[in-house]
Write a structure and sequence with these properties.
mainly alpha, 2 helices, elongated
């Protein structure tokens, strides 16, 4: 249960961080992809980083 909660918290933090990053990139570079694609990209990136962090935490415990 605690692991699932940690995963959800990390996912939300990661998603917020990458959404913010993509927002900054979109402001600096006006001819980027549409917003839906950017949100999708940020979700995938945050999920990957969350999985990597989660995997490294699990590896350290063993």
């Amino acid at each position: 249960m605690k692991k699932k909660l940690l995963f959800i918290i990390l996912f939300i933090v990661g998603n917020t961080f990458f959404s913010y990053l993509y927002y900054i990139i979109a402001i600096n570079n006006r001819n980027t992809d549409n917003e839906i694609l950017q949100i999708f990209k940020s979700l995938i990136l945050s999920l990957l980083i969350t999985l990597v962090i989660f995997w490294s935490i699990n590896k350290k415990k063993k």
